[in-house]
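User: tokens in, sequence out, please.
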């Protein structure tokens, strides 16, 4: 599990490679990203934590929950 600096996004995966010197995280297995009530799932991810850029690799599905 990785949580961003602002604690607005959470990454979850069974396998996660984290490179602290580059502030990058990658996985080639299922990943779930949560941001408040929004949930996005995918297979594979590359994340640059310095730039807050996330690349989801395949089978991406997202569910948006509108604020009430």
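Assistant: Sequence out:
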């Amino acid at each position: 599990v990785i949580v961003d600096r602002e604690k607005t996004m959470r990454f979850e995966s069974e396998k996660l490679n984290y490179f602290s010197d580059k502030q990058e995280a990658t996985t080639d297995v299922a990943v779930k990203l949560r941001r408040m009530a929004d949930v996005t799932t995918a297979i594979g991810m590359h994340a640059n934590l310095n730039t807050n850029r996330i690349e989801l690799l395949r089978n991406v599905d997202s569910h948006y929950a509108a604020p009430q």
